[in-house]
Amino acid sequence: MTSSVKGALFDKDGTLFDFASTWEAWALAFLNRMGRDEVHAAELAGLIGFDYSEQKFLNDSIVIAGTSGEVAKALTRGLEGWSAEAIEDVLNMEAANAPQAEAVPLKPLLNRLKAAGLKLGVATNDAEMPALAHLKSADVTGYFDFIAGFDSGYGGKPAPAQMQGFCKAVGLAPNEVIMVGDSLHDLHAGKAAGMRCVGVLTGLAGEAELSPFAEVVLPDIGHIPAWLGLK
Q: For position 167, which CATH number holds?
């Protein structure tokens, strides 16, 4: 390996799993479940940055990089009688059952990175419970040395605590680790921790948005081995 990289910390949604393919159908189903009718569902959609008629997330949607707690808080304005905690419980339950679309075939990629001796981790603004369910559904949990949701004791991104937790858990310096993500929250968190940052385009942010904060922007995580110079 021609790189000094010894660890890779991945965001989950939009990075390990394609964001639009996974979450747009989920969002529509969730909104239809919670809305009294289509008009109300569309109003709820507006609160979280989802275009109900087009069935697509807006680029500034809180769902893209926010925690489930932040999404729940936004929805309280349209769900009278619901507490943020109750909404978050529903969000996490529904999210755990959302079918995940792998950004690339994950097992071959993770096998290659582990064979090169890299320590691997996941740092997500999703809650830990659905995050573990998603990794289990793809049968890749065992590849990761560290998995943290926003409620795992480190808080969420863009704060750097999850990144620091990974470094401590695997015994690496931040400059030996790449933080791989599809959003500015991911890249800001990695940079704040002193990591090298890699952007990917399997979320909703474009290259122009990510490139000022990333060492490189790749089409997807499948391009990481070549970028690292792995044989």
A: 3.40.50.1000
**Parallel, antiparallel, or unpaired: how do β-strands 119-123 and 56-57 relate?**
unpaired
Same domain (yes/no): 214, 127: yes
Same domain, 144 and 45: no
SS3 199: strand
In the 8-state DSSP scheme, what is residue 41?
Answer: H
The last residue of one of the domains, among 96, 124, 145, is: 96
Q: What are phi and psi of 217, to 5 degrees?
A: -115, 120
Buried b (16+ CB within 10 A) or exposed e, 83-121: ebeebbebbbebbbebebebbbebeebbebbeebebbbb
| Predicted structure pTM score | 0.88
Q: Give the pLDDT confidence of 17-65 residue by residue, as tens digits.
A: 999 888 998 899 899 999 999 999 999 999 999 999 999 999 899 998 8
Please give the tally of structural domains in the chain: 2
